[in-house]
TrEMBL record:
The keyword Metal-binding applies. It comes from Paenibacillus gansuensis. Its cofactor is Zn(2+). GO terms for molecular function: fructose-bisphosphate aldolase activity. This is Class II fructose-1,6-bisphosphate aldolase. Keywords: Lyase, Metal-binding, Zinc. It holds the Pfam family F_bP_aldolase. It is an enzyme of class 4 (lyase). InterPro entries: Aldolase_TIM, Class_II_FBP_aldolase, FBA_II, Fruc_bis_ald_class-2. It comes from the Bacteria. Its EC number is 4.1.2.13.
Amino acid sequence: PLVSMNEFLPKAKANKFAVGQFNMNNLEFAQAIVEAAMKEKSPFIYGVSEGALKYMGIEFTVAIAKAAAEKSGLPIALHLDHGSSFDVAMKCIRAGFSSVMFDGSHYTLEENIRLTKEVVKAARAMGVSVEGELGTIGGVEDDISVDEANASLAKPEEAIRFYEETGVDCLAIAVGTAHGMYAGEPNIHFDIIEKVSAAIPVPVVLHGGSGVPDEDIRKAIQAGAGKINVNTENQVACTNAIREVLNKDSKVYDPRKYLTPARNAMVEVVQEKIRLFGSSNQA
Ligand code: G3H
Ligand code: ZN
């Protein structure tokens, strides 16, 4: 069965590794992610954005994740990514999600705390874990787009207060990463991760994990990042593999001929991330 993030996040925080959230965009993503995790014997999180949910359909999403959990025997959480309302979170929980994120980062701190608390209260009663977010993460992901000027770092005192008042199971804070690939290199504020992580018992979440140099990922984990989200790198690997096949052969028509290399490319990406995050053999 699918599990809450509390099945593995406390251990990640205590032993300084991170569990990957790999976003599910379709069946091939789901298969590639679980195959990589099986090779590495690693727990992981399927992240599903509201856009991906619309694309796949909630029934297919849950059925695919449950099939992956059954086939692999691994601790897998099915997690709503950047949930925008209490209602969406509840809809996902009723459908079988084991974890949800409520992203109230665009509200005032007071309002974000108030709304996140409501989600935590309802989710906890059903054994479902909750991620909150503070500060705004730049870049583009599905319907959420934040330009550089409006991306703002989380303030450690506010993050600590947010945790104390909401009791979330992990906390995403804006520390300088962005959704999508980077033009240059990200300027990650490790001191913010460190300050917040030292003051709360749950891990900090690093969003926008794609394109972050390995050394920065290692430093972020040492500072207290216990969950790291990756989506774009898999999308790029998938599409590049498909493009390569189509460019070479204009007569190919069987989708399996390009989806197989696409899936294999994603297995490689995910396996590398799992090793980098240190979650191998932690299942
Ligand atoms: O919530 C999802 C992640 O933050 C994905 O970010 O596409 O930059 O890897 P990414
Ligand atoms: Zn994100």
